[in-house]
Specification:
6-stranded antiparallel beta sheet; 0% helix; mainly beta; globular; single chain
C-alpha cells in the first residue's frame, strides 16, 4: 500500500490518500478518520458511508479546510 500526505500551501498535512495494489483509494483526514473511497473499476467516489458523491476520482473534494 502507498500512503501519500496531502498538504496545503503552508505544508500542513490536510489528509492522506492510501492506494491499494488493486487501485482502490481511501482518503483520510489529518487525524486518520476515513472521509471517502475511490473505486477505479466503477470510477465512482463514495463518502465514508459508501454513498456515491461523484463520478471519477474526486476524493480531495471531501477534504475540509
Amino acid at each position: 500500500m502507498n500512503r501519500v500526505p496531502l498538504k496545503d500551501e503552508h505544508h500542513r498535512i490536510l489528509g492522506y490518500v492510501e492506494t491499494k495494489p488493486n487501485g482502490h483509494q481511501t482518503l483520510s483526514d489529518d487525524h486518520h478518520r476515513i472521509l471517502g473511497y475511490y473505486d477505479p473499476k466503477t470510477d465512482y467516489t463514495t463518502d465514508d458511508h459508501h454513498k456515491v458523491v461523484g463520478h471519477g476520482n474526486i476524493l480531495t473534494s471531501l477534504l475540509k479546510r
